[in-house]
Amino acid sequence: MNGRVLVVDDDRAMCEMLASALARAGFDAVWRTAAAAARAALDADDIDVVVSDVNLGDADGIALCAELATAHPELPVVMITAFGSMESAIAAIRAGAYDFVTKPFAVELLIHALERAIRHRRMRAEVKRLRAAAGEAAPFAGLIGASEPMQNVARLIARVAASEVSVLVSGETGTGKEIVARALHERGRRRDRPFIAVNCAALPEPLLESELFGHARGAFTDARSPRTGLFLRASGGTLFLDEIAELPLGLQPKLLRALQERVVRPVGSDVEVPFDVRLVTATNRDLESAVAAGRFREDLFYRINVVNLALPPLRSRGNDVLLLAQHFLSRYAERSGKSVVGLSAPAAERLLAYDWPGNVRELQNCIERALALTQYDHLAVDDLPEKIRAHRREYVVVASTDPAELASMEEVERRYVARVLEAVAGNKTLAARILGFDRKTLYRKLEHYAARGGGDA
User: What are the pLDDT digits (tens) for 131-174?
Assistant: First the structure.
């Protein structure tokens, strides 16, 4: 059922005709021939949208629309006006009508207006619900999400946080891997001890080795005094190594030995020092592929990947997009002193339709920008970046009868490959197995898509 429609018109035959046509289109339609009866129907029934004629005989349809806009602000009203009566159309919009159609009209045009109105109402209701739920959807500090994929993540964090096993957090850039690492630390037995993070891609190999293991005085030219490495500085707590796939090959056996023996040897020292840390690592790469290609040691992979915690991309998290948007909006509005309270329904629709290649980090940037630009108490479509306003849906419409919506077989394959990779968090070995390809074939296809401008699926 598309929704429940109340038709209001003083012409009984028109009511019956519209109710019959709407029923054939999948709507549940009821009708009334007087404004008073329409008010009673709204009080007694759950109506999704009202269709009202401007001329109701003993009543003014514009006045009824204004009354409904006050009494039922969440209820969209579509007005039917006389052909060429622009004054009536303007009056209807000023009275709070969602849309209007002019007589004579094709029923298909009215159906399209009703579908948009119902979608608008449901989106507004969802935005309102999510705004109320924004403070309740964070099982761990900073980890916001009510979708099933994120609930699975929260459950896994709760199960492994108290243990001492090494955890590898995998996921695309911007999905919140460090937030998960902090959640593991804060829920574990080491919560009162240090949490120290380092990005393995941010430092060259000699500096990274010194940063991790420390160095003795005179170990190299600028080593005028000894330095304690992060393994020892994080003693009793958690050490988080981000972008572990970028760890230089020369350092990998040293890290492996440290983890196996639970001791570190500072650069330039002959003394081994024991440490006590829990290790959490993170990567946005497919480490299994890196192992197969010889870029990452297999024994180190198994040492750090005792438990794998795969973070879903934002595009697969459904209405979490709106939940996160509301969270960021509230945060930045308070910080800037702006009285912006939420998203408009059209803006929410655009946020849901966008693919978010930059994930949560991109959404955060988008909301901060939109808040800086907006002149209203709700973020509007015009406040969003152009690429989000102009975004076109990426999924394939298989059942459509519109040739403009149908895609070539190559495009269908490209999008399906992308969907499988998304579902397995970028694990190309597993994706190839699901797709029925060998890995070389999958890599060849990805290179072909990238060369044709389809991106790295």
Answer: 666 555 555 667 888 889 998 999 999 999 999 999 999 999 99
- The single residue listed with the structure tokens 């102009």 is 390
Q: Number of folded domains in the chain? A: 4
DSSP string, 59-70: SBHHHHHHHHHH
Q: Which domain holds residue 446?
A: 403-451
Residue 372 corresponds to which amino acid?
A: A
Report the alpha-carbon distance of residue 320 to residue 418 in Å, rounded. Answer: 21
The percentage of the chain sitting over the pLDDT mark of 90, rounded to a whole number, equals: 50
How many Å apart are CA 75 and CA 9, to the nearest integer? 18
- Pick from 363, 389, 415: which residue ends a domain? 389
Q: What angle do CA 445, 446, 448 make, to 5 degrees?
A: 65
The answer on 276 and 192 residing in a single domain is yes
Query: Do 18 and 54 lie in a common domain?
Result: yes
Q: Which amino acid is at 275?
A: F
pLDDT of residue 42 exceeding 50, the answer is yes
Nearest to 48 by CA among 143, 113, 92, 109: 113
- Is the pLDDT confidence value at 181 over 80? yes
> Closest Cα to residue 311, out of 130, 434, 142?
142
Whether 375 and 413 map to the same domain: the answer is no
- CATH number reported for the structural domain that contains residue 323 in this entry: 1.10.8.60
**What mean pLDDT do residues 367-377 have?**
92
